[in-house]
Every structure is written in C-alpha cells, then in structure tokens.
Structure prediction request, 119 residues.
Amino acid sequence: MKYTEEHEWLRVEDDVVVVGITAHAAEQLGDVVFVELPDEGTTVSKDDEVVVIESVKAASDILAPLDGEIVEVNSVLVDEPGKVNDDPEGEAWFFKMTVEDMSALDELMDEAAYRKFVG
Prediction:
C-alpha cells in the first residue's frame, strides 16, 4: 500500500487503484455519520475534492490522490457510514480509480514512511 500526507491509503488491484482513509484519519475524525461519494465515470485531477465525510467532530474532504477516472464507488458507505470507523483500511474503501500514470504512485509514502509521518 501507499499513503498520502492527507492520510489516504492506495492499494493497486489489477489495473485500478483502490482509495480509502487510514485508521489514523478515521480515529481523528471520530464517529462518521455521513459519506458523499463521487459519481462513477468522473474524471479527476490530483487534489480535486471527491468525497465528503461528516463526523460528530467535523466535516472533511477526501482529495483525489492522482489524476484519473473514478470507476467504482463503495455505495455501502452511504447507508452505513460507520463502517469507515470499523474497517477504514479494508471494507470501507471509498472509490476505485484508473490512473493516467501509475508511476505517480512511486512518489507516495510506503507504510514505514507513513508511520514515521504520523509519529
């Protein structure tokens, strides 16, 4: 897996990248009560706001980690936003995307670097 400074994780599955938030981010947010996902087929650029998360503490945006196209969303989270707290780095992924340049993943942190980043 790869990680961003915005506390997102990215996992490559075949030719798509699965994106979610880290356990650290879910813990910082507190109980998630609302998730708004992008539309499938949406073309995004790195740092575009693509997901809105609301928790009992705050509202946050999830940014596109790379340039590409949203090809699938985890619609379960719309009805069950609490899954983000239960399994943030597993079943509670937000979206899958095709990426224009897979080598861009090389610029992201690996797990050891992310652990150091969050201290």
Remarks:
- The mean pLDDT is 96.
- The radius of gyration is 13 Å.
